[in-house]
Specification:
The chain has about 300 residues and is an all-alpha fold. It is about 75% helix and about 0% strand. α4 (about 50-60) packs antiparallel against α5 and α15 (about 245-260) runs parallel beside α17.
Length: about 300
């Protein structure tokens, strides 16, 4: 792997998306046939919400890698740009036709399919896909985070505690573990310990100027500390950097808790402009309603209701 591609991957993982894209563009200029560089570029652009450029990067993969990689890349963008149903069908069919795919590729596709089903409210299908993905990659931290979020939404905290018993080194997974403990009776001591550990980790990150976990910090502030102003500020800072569905959700949740309708407007406009389909987001949008004396017609004007 070229050094600049390795550096770009590290920069992406620490949410330094601008420098990551610079390195990726330099790699592609030298090696236009580098499929990993195109895929990483598509991933970064999707997180940033630059869907047109992300799709263009995915399209370059068709001559460089397997159909499963190309379709998963394209479906990841299409699923949040008004083409959720068609992209889910295409990805499901492509996965069925990709017998013998590497476990990490199959798990990647299954995780995305599970997220798609979750966004449609198809919980049984989503769970089956999550479990199949976990059978391929049981320690994948992104997959564990997505599945435990699903379980928390289903009010199944004991399963989260069991699943994350040995996975608390990663801050995002410790957060899910703490949220699960909070929901369980008789777990006050381990909950307080997990909460204190998270507070220490997030404080250390802020001291370093590390903004990687602002989404998780916003959830921590909102649901574990009940610090509504801090949660909203963190969610807004996070939204300035990345625009995935969980980023939309935490900003809506924080705005709703703070009764700050204006803070929700960027997400309402984004959802309307891009055709984002997600039952949890729609539920939050309905709950927002007229807050602080502001009229729901403002949301209709934004096209979000």
């Amino acid at each position: 792997m070229p050094v600049r591609l390795l550096r770009a991957t590290i920069l992406q993982s620490t949410h330094q998306f601008g420098p990551a894209l610079q390195d990726l563009d330099a790699v592609i200029a030298q090696e236009p046939g580098n499929g990993q560089a195109w895929l990483t570029r598509a991933t970064v652009l999707t997180v940033q919400g630059d869907y047109a450029q992300a799709t263009a990067s995915c399209a370059r993969l068709s001559a460089l890698t397997t159909q499963l990689v190309t379709v998963t890349c394209i479906a990841n963008v299409a699923s949040v740009t008004g083409r959720a149903a068609s992209s889910e069908r295409l990805l499901d069919l492509t996965l069925q036709r990709s017998a013998g795919a590497a476990p990490e590729l199959e798990s990647w596709a299954l995780t995305l399919l599970a997220e798609m089903a979750t966004r449609r409210g198809e919980t049984a299908l989503a769970e089956a896909r999550y479990k199949k993905a976990l059978s391929q990659q049981p320690r994948d931290s992104y997959l564990l985070g997505a599945y435990t979020d699903f379980l928390l939404d289903q009010r199944r905290p004991q399963e989260v505690v069991t699943l994350l018993k040995d996975q608390q080194r990663i801050d995002a997974l410790l957060l899910r573990h703490a949220l699960a403990l909070q929901a369980l009776p008789g777990q006050q001591a381990p909950f307080q310990a997990a909460k204190a550990e998270l507070a220490a980790r997030f404080h250390a990150a802020m001291q370093r100027g590390d903004t990687v976990h602002q989404r998780e910090q916003a959830r921590f502030a909102l649901f574990l500390q009940q610090d509504l102003p801090a949660a909203l500020q963190l969610a807004q800072k996070n939204w300035a950097i990345q625009k995935e569905v969980p980023d939309m959700r935490i900003l809506l949740e924080a705005a709703l808790a703070a009764r700050n309708y204006a803070a929700a407007q960027p997400v309402l406009a984004w959802v309307a402009a891009n055709g984002v389909e997600d039952v949890a987001l729609q539920r939050l949008i309905r709950q927002l309603g007229p807050l602080d004396g502001q009229k729901v017609s403002a949301a209709r004007k934004a096209g979000a209701l």
